[in-house]
Amino acid sequence: MTDEEICAQLYRNLWEASIAKDAERIAAVLDDGYALVHMTGLRQSKRAYIAAVLDGTLNYYSAEHDSIDVRLSPDAGRAEIRGRSRVSAAVFGGGRNTWRLQQDLKAEKIGGAWLLTESRASTY
């Protein structure tokens, strides 16, 4: 697999693990310093994100990916990933809805493995 393919798969893996509420699989794709910035501006750490998925604050049911674009840095040690997906979710006590969710993610090759370091959510 190329670095671009690995980074695109990281995005898919994060969604699959979040839908499955699999803390171990979520943790495996996120750097310890990972932060998610929600559309509301709320910033969640890796630990807080995993806890919110597990306790039902963030409920993801499915994700259909419309596009996943990856741009590598010139040294191929960092990447920017833009994923656009139609996500069925119920979050922060709201009703279930399908969102056209865009995530702008940053990834870094750390110790030879690609990990997600940041995600900023918006709609498209």
Model description:
27% of the residues lie in helices and 52% in strands. The chain has helices at residues 3-20, 23-29, 46-54; strands at residues 30-37, 43-45, 58-72, 78-91, 97-110, 113-123. The termini are far apart. The chain has a six-stranded mixed beta sheet. Helix 1 packs antiparallel against helix 2 (23-29). By secondary structure, it is an alpha+beta fold.
Bin the strand percentage.
over 45%
Q: Class by helix and strand content?
A: alpha+beta
What strand line-up does the widest sheet have?
2-1-6-5-4-3
- The string of secondary-structure elements, in order, is HHEEHEEEE
Number of strands: 6
- Arithmetic mean pLDDT: 97
- Distance between the amino and carboxyl termini: 29 Å
For the largest beta-sheet, the strand count, sense and barrel status come to: 6 strands, mixed
From the alpha carbons, calculate the radius of gyration and give it in angstroms: 14 Å
Q: Stretches where pLDDT falls below 50 for ≥5 residues?
A: none
Shape: globular
Helix fraction by DSSP (H/I, runs of at least 4): 25-40%
The number of helical segments is 3
